[in-house]
C-alpha cells in the first residue's frame, strides 16, 4: 500500500528545547491514522512540520512523495487542514469565510457545502467576531469537508464542539474513509480515535512509542474479567497473567488478565464451574494510560 505521508526520525528543536526527538510513522492511502498523546507531547509540532510551517531539525518528512519543506505549495493544493484553534476575519460572515477558504484552495461552494452547513447547524449570516470557538471550528470543518482533497489533516478539530456536532464530524470522517481518502487525525479524545482510526501512533515527549492497529495493541493490554463460580475463586489470584485480583466473595472476583494468557485463565475458571462470566476487552484509554504510566509521569508543555 502506498504511503501518502512518510515521517522518519523527525526532530525539531526550539533553541535548547527539543520538541520532537524521534517521530516515525506513515499514513497509508485510504486510511484514517490516529495521532494521540496529551497536550505538549509534540502532536501539533509534528503536524506543523508536515505542513511545511516549521522546518525540521533532523530526519525526513514527505507527503505524496515530496519533501514537505521544499514542496509545501504543491502539497497544499492536494490537502485540507483544520487546526485546533481557528482564527477568522472578524468582519466577514461565516458564509463568506467558507467561500474564501474554498476559493483559496481552487474549490467552489457546492450543494455539498450547503449540506454540511445544515449538518453542522451553522448560521452563516453572522459575522465571525460573534462566533464562539465551536462555531469557528465549524467554519473550518465545513470548508475542509467541502474540499475534494487527497489528504485531510485534522489537529484537535473537535475542540469546542458539543457531543452532537462531534458525532457529525466522526460521520464525515468515516465518509471520507469510504471514499478512499487519507486522513491524519490528531486527538486526545480517545473514543473519537477508537471509532474512526485504522491505525494509531502514540507520541510521548516528542517520541513515537508505539504504532499499530488497535487490535495489535490490544494484544499488549489486559482484559477485565468478572467471574462467579460454584467453587472458591482464591486459586486464580496466584496464576501467571492475573493482575489486580479483587475477591468480592468466596465465589466471585474481578481481575485483569494479560491478553496472551486469557485462554489458560478461562480454562482454569471453567474448572471451578462457572455460574457467570463477563469479559471486557481493553479500551484505547486503558492502553494509552498503560503506555504513559510505564515510564513514569508524562510532562506537559509544548
Automatic annotation (TrEMBL):
Q: Does the keyword Chaperone apply?
A: no
InterPro entries assigned = AAA+_ATPase (IPR003593), ABC_transporter-like_ATP-bd (IPR003439), ABC_transporter-like_CS (IPR017871), ABC_Transporter_VariousFunc (IPR051782), DrrA1/2-like_C (IPR025302), P-loop_NTPase (IPR027417)
Tell me which UniProt keywords the record has, alphabetically. Answer: ATP-binding, Nucleotide-binding, Transport
Annotated ABC transporter domain residues: 5-230
Q: Which PANTHER family match?
A: ABC TRANSPORTER ATP-BINDING PROTEIN ALBC-RELATED (PTHR42939:SF1)
This chain's protein is named ABC transporter ATP-binding protein
Organism annotation: Paucilactobacillus suebicus DSM 5007 = KCTC 3549
Gene3D superfamilies (UniProt xref): P-loop containing nucleotide triphosphate hydrolases
Amino acid at each position: 500500500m502506498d504511503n501518502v505521508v512518510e515521517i522518519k526520525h523527525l526532530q525539531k528543536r526550539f533553541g535548547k528545547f527539543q520538541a520532537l526527538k524521534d517521530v516515525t510513522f506513515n499514513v497509508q492511502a485510504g486510511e484514517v491514522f490516529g495521532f494521540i498523546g496529551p497536550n505538549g507531547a509534540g502532536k501539533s509540532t509534528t503536524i506543523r512540520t508536515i505542513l511545511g510551517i516549521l522546518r525540521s531539525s533532523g530526519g525526513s518528512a514527505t507527503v505524496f512523495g515530496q519533501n514537505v519543506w521544499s514542496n509545501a505549495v504543491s502539497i497544499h493544493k492536494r490537502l485540507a487542514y483544520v487546526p485546533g484553534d481557528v482564527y477568522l476575519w472578524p468582519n466577514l460572515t461565516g458564509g463568506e469565510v467558507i467561500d474564501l477558504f474554498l476559493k483559496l484552495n481552487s474549490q467552489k461552494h457546492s450543494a455539498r457545502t450547503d449540506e454540511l452547513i445544515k449538518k453542522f447547524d451553522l448560521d452563516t449570516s453572522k459575522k465571525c467576531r460573534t462566533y464562539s470557538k465551536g462555531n469557528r471550528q465549524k467554519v473550518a470543518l465545513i470548508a475542509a469537508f467541502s474540499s475534494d482533497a487527497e489528504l485531510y489533516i485534522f489537529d484537535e478539530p473537535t475542540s469546542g464542539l458539543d457531543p452532537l456536532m462531534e458525532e457529525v464530524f466522526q460521520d464525515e470522517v468515516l465518509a471520507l474513509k469510504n471514499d478512499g481518502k487519507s486522513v491524519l487525525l490528531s486527538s486526545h479524545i480517545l473514543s473519537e480515535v477508537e471509532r474512526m482510526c485504522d491505525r494509531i501512533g502514540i507520541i510521548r515527549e516528542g517520541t513515537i512509542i508505539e504504532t499499530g492497529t488497535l487490535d495489535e495493541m490490544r494484544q499488549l493490554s489486559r482484559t477485565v474479567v468478572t467471574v462467579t463460580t460454584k467453587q472458591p475463586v482464591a486459586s486464580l489470584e496466584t496464576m501467571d497473567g492475573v493482575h489486580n485480583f479483587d475477591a468480592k466473595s468466596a465465589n466471585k472476583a474481578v481481575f485483569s488478565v494479560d491478553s496472551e494468557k486469557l485462554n489458560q485463565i478461562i480454562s482454569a475458571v471453567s474448572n471451578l464451574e462457572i455460574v457467570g462470566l463477563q469479559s471486557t476487552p481493553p479500551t484505547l484509554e486503558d492502553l494509552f494510560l498503560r503506555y504513559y504510566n510505564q515510564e513514569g509521569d508524562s510532562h506537559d508543555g509544548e
